Amino acid sequence: MTTADGTSNRVYIRHAQYGWMPGRLLSAASEGSTKVTVAIRNFDEEDHIQSGDGPSKHARGTENVEVDLADYEEYARKLPLQNVNPKGELNEVEDMVDLPFLHEAAILYNLKSRHVRGLPYTRTGDIVIAVNPYRWMDGLYSDKMREQYAEKLIWDVPTDIDAKSLVEPHVYETSSLAYHDLCVHGSDQSVLVSGESGAGKTETVKILMSHLASIQGHFPGGGGEASGGGATATNKPHKASSFSSSPIVERVLDSNPLLEAFGNAKTVRNDNSSRFGKFIQLQFDAEDPEHAARAGRSVANAVLAGSFCEVYLLEKSRVCGHEESERTFHVFYQLLGAPAEEREKIWDELGYDDVDQEAFTFVGYSDTDTIEGKTDGQRWNDTVEALAIVGVKDETFLSLMRSICVVLQLGNLSFAPDPTDEEKTIIEIEEDNDELGRLSKLMGMESNDVMKALTERTIEARGEVFKVPLNEAKARDARDAFAKEIYARTFLWLVRKINEATRAELHYEGRDRVGRGGYRFIGLLDIFGFESFEVNRYEQLCINYANEKLQQKFTSDIFRSVQAEYEFEGIELGEVSFQDNADVLELIEGRMGLIAVLNEECVRPKGCDTAFVSKVYAMNKDSTECLVQDNFFRDYEFGIKHYAGPVVSYALHSFSYLALKQNTDCCQ
Question: Active-site residue 270, yes or no?
């Protein structure tokens, strides 16, 4: 076993604690055996583990371990080789397609080597991989850096070499290439930002948006209208005035913090985790490439004209509950951290000018009051200012915030059996704490009407309408469903208001002159990362399902397509191992998969948690590799082995989807 440059026997072996450990193969397997001996070095800490066998002051001796090659079937019963030079030192690369041996361990140790040296970005072809440094790095996102990538990858692109070889891997590389292709080819672009929770996706989207908004300040002609010509006959960029002076750009960039306030929350892994998915289309007034060519320019002009945002899969269940170390959505804490006079005005003088988080059941105690360097009170001021920019102020602002107050008040309602009729439920009212009265005043309704709405269910049959009383548990479910629905609709209303304030069709000064082809766009898809919590609900299944689909696309684009291309051209390609997750997707979306069975169980009159789990196991007996059954699972739990790692157990009793039919009926 030799490496590309003649060094031998430096390999990686699996390690229970660290994933992969570098080592030196001491002996090959004897005839008829699959056992080999590998020497590995011991280190003080995981951070100090390094590939190769060069000198290290952190190494603490070596030990010999026996390895069974039968456990490496995906590597054809061989140990994956290290990428090292003759001195035994790691060959670190900027682009991992240049790795002589491309496999999981090689990728991880290459990323680690760059991360240790303060280089968070690495590329694999057109894909940029970011390892979150969890600190701000001076100069990494400076104006000078923005201009450098715009110049090298947009305006002065060489024709004889790959322009990416002239710059270090960077997220600006992705935004610059997207802008370049939009201008040169006249085609819409999309940028996918994915990764596990806490990887830095939200921050990356903000960096991408800011860079794409600033590029127009550097094109020849310096921020003029794109479609009307008016540009110089050179692609050479020049320094322009601040891009933030444009009210369109200001509204586009300020929309993101608003979405964070209403759609982000603290989780166990991330203080500012997006609890929804979003697809932001940055709309550009782009010059026709043919028009630019006739003017002697190889790159057409494109001006940011507006934006449009689509959102999906808001984690509504977080409104009514969250793990002890987590928080609900930021806006609740911002509202409670607002100045007393503002709270009093919003709550319509209901006596909530001096309250804390523990006064509301849906919020509860939190030891966190600062997110990314700003307190909840400071964030409140930012949110109010951002809302004003998109036109939400005065009475509209009060209505928006009172809808948040209604959600808070709903969580404080307590239900109990009706002492006069055990089949009915009442809302408890304390003499000195009339939560129902406060809620009714906020909603502009009579208390009796609110109580009936939350403790009775309306059924229509054969043209007649009946009122059916709800027991205590179902009344509580109805209350939660109502609160989640109010918040979800408030969130969607806010997204519509943002779109009304940022859409190019409504506000761009040059909209009358944009051709019939309309605006070109660069889309930014911010998708949930893979999630595994102590209690995993329906939202986690949907999130992880989306990540499985993205992994399949990645596999198809990077591995399968390349293999097919090589085979078609008759080029010999060595063994490339990758994880195929088709079996997991079949389990989830197949004809007898989880979604199909769940749909059936939801419409069945007596559908229940345990029946669903039993059917899933019975109908997917051949999926033993990815559908896991554990003796410690309860009868409403099942496990899935996802591509991303350990088995994730899902608790069906926490699935909001299975209760969807009943909750929808309760909201009617």
Answer: yes
